[in-house]
Amino acid sequence: MYTSISPLQKMTFETTMAFMKDAILNNSEDILRTPSSGLVVGRLPRIGTGCFDILYPLY
Q1: InterPro entries recorded for this chain (predicted)?
Q2: What is the mean pLDDT of residues 35-39?
Q3: d(CA 46, CA 55)
């Protein structure tokens, strides 16, 4: 996990405080491209059942 670019993806595993401290001290940024980092901020991943929307006419 240390090789991942995404600080939020690193924080989704067990050592949250260590990764958060490193991200803050190193001024890291996250572009939210991984499903793990997106879930941390409430964005649903566009994979599986999240990759489409069902539209039904209401008339």
Answers
A1: DNA-dir_RpoC_beta_prime
A2: 79
A3: 17
